[in-house]
Amino acid sequence: LVFTDVGGALVAILVVDQKVKTWNVAGSKALGGDLLKLLRDIGVTGNRQASRLEGESSWKAHAATVRRKLIPDEFLEGFESLTDLVIVPDGSLWYLPMDLLPLGDENAELLGERVAIRYAPTIGLAVHPVAYSNFDRPTGLVTPLFFAPRDAEANQQAIDQISGALKEPVL
Predict the structure, then answer these.
(1) What is the distance between the alpha carbons of residues 99 and 67, in angstroms, rounded to a whole number?
(2) % helix / strand / coil in the chain, to the nearest 5?
(3) What is the pTM of this model?
């Protein structure tokens, strides 16, 4: 599940079983305020003496509001078959504990109870890359006075150590 800002509008992309669903996040301009309300309700901001998750349930209504904006009801069916979910948040969504979002109304099962959630900073890092098979290429090494800027001899020793560990260094 990817969220990305495109020209001031927040777009969501969900890929499940090689099927791609996209939608514009409605009310994305006001989403920051909704996130702040939810974070306050669960005790993240302000006085951090104790979590409010167990004692109060007012956070559940704000979590449902945020979920409806981020993942409208018509896209919830894509989550039924999932066991794992990788989320690529953008902007203030990095602060949102997505596992607290209910998959329905405020009393529904939480996303984190249904699926194992992982976060990734980019789409490319969200999937496991295929191993690079050709390791026989030369490796370039650009070496200004970096390792020891005030000591050219120490810098050269560091460069020699690094280049000695490479198969075909190109300096």
Answers:
(1) 10
(2) 35, 20, 45
(3) 0.68
